[in-house]
Structures are given as C-alpha cells and as structure tokens.
C-alpha cells in the first residue's frame, strides 16, 4: 500500500491534507475487506474516550470463501477496549483477530469493536490502521488488504455539568419573605480530562 499526504506550514501554523492510500498490484481477489471508524476517518480522537473500528468482509466472487480470518494490528498508540458483544473476536496484545467463517457469493459480514488512545500519547499524533484478511476458495488461498483509516489525537476537552436543586421547600412550593431555602449544587466533570 502506498500512502501520501501534503503539508502546508506557515510561521505559526501547520495544516495537513487528508492521506490518500492505494493498494499495490491488481485487485483480483474474491475477498473484499473494508475498514471504517466512528468518528469518521481523518477526524480527531482524544485520550480516554473510546471510539469504534469496524471491519466488513464481502465475497465478490462466484464461489464460497471459507476460513475467513481478518487480522487487525492496532497502532501502538491504541489499546483495545471491548468487542461490542461479538463472539468471533479474539485479542492478543495489539492483534485483534476476527473469524468470519464462510461467505457465500455476494454475502457480507461485519463486526465493530472499541479502542482508545493510550495515556501519554501526545496531541497531534497520527494513528493509522489497516487490516488484512485471508480465506480459501476451494484449495486456493485468497487475501485482501483493507483501506487505511487514520485519526489525529486532539486535545481532551473537559465537560463541566452543573445541577442546582431546591431541597427545602421543593421547587414547586411558594416561599415567604424570611423563609429559609436550602439549595444543593452538584458539579461534575463528564469529560476526558481533569479540570484544574
């Protein structure tokens, strides 16, 4: 696979184009493998907030493809979070392996799983991911390489929530001029970074 990106840099800023990747050689395999993500490819992700990777395989040939296995080696800046309930996913370190079994002609199967950026990874770091799949058509092996998805590590943003409640008397009752009113104020950070 060949990938290319352009960079423009000024005195105080830098901007990168999207990355364009092409698989090398002829695409004559009956097995098609697509990698996708949420947030979408090229969007920012932040440390501590899980996001989704998805893998979709399709049989574009005229015979069954058996023993389909996809290996997705996660970037070293990522960690696997959970498999979203799919029983055909196994994880060993950075290797996420999916056993798709058999695909009939024109059949498609997909899985999703969750990853997150490891603590300590610097903002602006690029995270790339590509998967590879293999299978068998009769006695002949087939293989496929997915497209490459990438994300840039962004700055975590705190999310401050504040709730104010009237405990005595309840908010639905009227109060007199010298009545005591007790308020409870709850503040919480539901974001991925600490608020100093």
Brief rundown of the structure:
This protein has 196 residues and is an all-beta fold.
Write up this protein.
The chain is mainly β and 196 residues long. Helices cover 0% and strands 55% of the residues. The chain is built from no helices and 18 strands. The chain has strands at 2-4, 7-9, 14-16, 20-22, 31-38, 44-45, 51-59, 65-73, 78-82, 89-92, 95-103, 108-117, 126-129, 131-137, 140-145, 149-153, 160-168, 182-189. It has a 5-stranded antiparallel sheet, with no helix packed on it. A 4-stranded antiparallel sheet has the order 5-7-12-9, with no helix packed on it. A 3-stranded mixed sheet has the order 6-16-13, with no helix packed on it.
Entry keywords:
single chain, 196 residues, mainly beta, 5-stranded antiparallel sheet, 0% helix
- β-strand percent reads over 45%
* Overall shape: elongated
List low-confidence stretches.
23-27
N-end to C-end Cα span: 44 Å
Helical amount among residues, as a percent range? Answer: under 10%
Rounded to the nearest angstrom, the radius of gyration is 24 Å
Q: Going across the major beta sheet, what is the strand order?
A: 10-11-8-14-15
Main sheet: strands, sense, barrel: 5 strands, antiparallel
Mean pLDDT: 83
Provide the structure class. mainly beta
Number of helices: 0
Topology order in helix (H) and strand (E) letters: EEEEEEEEEEEEEEEEEE
Number of strands: 18
